[in-house]
């Protein structure tokens, strides 16, 4: 077993994310992560006090990566093009990381880093929407967009959208949402 001093919070976090993505949130445990690293579970407690603290760190990292994916996708686009690119990137993140996305949507221990990461993502989305609908309606429109995206992701992850219900429904729904958003100004 490696000497615990040769590990760090980032190494543990990376192993926990890998385990989460491979086996899901229900299988995530300090013991499993420690085993993956060849450490005793006690070595992890020096960095994360319990599973809730580890999940909060995973969520913090996830919100940061999701925000980075949205920023990259949006680039210099504005208006509906920016919202379309952001929505598509959000969906792509959830599809590429279903267990991580599910963890992001569950309750977490509210650490300062997690609160900051959630807030940074929220502010980015609200400011993105604001450029299309104005400041007064930006937060409400951002919640509506989030609800649409999350609903589609939930339907897809529950395998409700089979062959009879093509994925093009996402594109149709997004276009209807964007058209309605801008026409109700």
**Straight-line distance between termini:** 62 Å
Compute the number of structural domains: 2
**Coarse morphology:** globular
Query: Which runs of at least 5 residues are low in confidence (pLDDT < 50)?
Result: none
Strand content: under 5%
CATH superfamily of the largest domain: Tetracycline Repressor, domain 2
State the helix count: 9
Describe this structure in words.
With 185 residues, the protein is mainly alpha-helical. It is built from nine helices and no strands. α1 crosses α2 (30-37) and α7 (112-133) crosses α8 (135-157). The longest helix is centred in the middle third of the chain and has 24 residues, at 51-74. The radius of gyration is 19 Å and the shape is globular. The protein starts with 8 loop residues before the first helix and ends with a helix. The model has no long low-confidence stretch (mean pLDDT 91).
Summarize the structure in short.
The chain folds into 2 domains: 1-48, Homeodomain-like (Arc Repressor Mutant, subunit A, Orthogonal Bundle), CATH 1.10.10; 52-183, Orthogonal Bundle (Tetracycline Repressor, domain 2).
Walk me through the topology:
Blueprint: H1 9-23, H2 30-37, H3 41-44, H4 51-74, H5 79-96, H6 98-104, H7 112-133, H8 135-157, H9 168-183
Helix pairs in contact: 1-2, 4-5, 4-6, 4-7, 5-6, 5-7, 5-8, 5-9, 7-8, 8-9
Based on the model shown, name its key terms.
mainly alpha, 185 residues, Arc Repressor Mutant, subunit A, 9 helices, globular, Tetracycline Repressor, domain 2, 0% strand, 2 domains, 74% helix
């Amino acid at each position: 077993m490696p000497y615990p001093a040769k590990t760090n919070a980032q190494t543990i976090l990376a192993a926990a994310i890998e385990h989460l993505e491979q086996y899901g949130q229900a299988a995530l445990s300090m013991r499993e992560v420690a085993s993956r690293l060849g450490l005793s579970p006690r070595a992890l407690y020096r960095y994360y006090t319990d599973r809730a603290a580890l999940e909060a760190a995973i969520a913090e990292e996830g919100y940061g990566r999701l925000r980075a994916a949205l920023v990259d996708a949006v680039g210099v686009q504005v208006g509906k093009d920016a919202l379309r690119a952001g929505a598509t990137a959000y969906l792509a993140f959830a599809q590429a990381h279903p267990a991580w996305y599910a963890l992001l949507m569950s309750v977490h221990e509210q650490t300062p880093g997690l609160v900051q990461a959630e807030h940074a993502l929220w502010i980015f989305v609200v400011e993105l929407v604001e450029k299309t609908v104005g400041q007064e309606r930006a937060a409400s429109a951002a919640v509506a967009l989030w609800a649409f995206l999350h609903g589609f992701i939930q339907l897809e992850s529950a395998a409700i959208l089979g062959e009879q219900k093509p994925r093009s429904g996402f594109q149709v729904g997004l276009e209807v949402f964007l058209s309605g958003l801008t026409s109700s100004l």
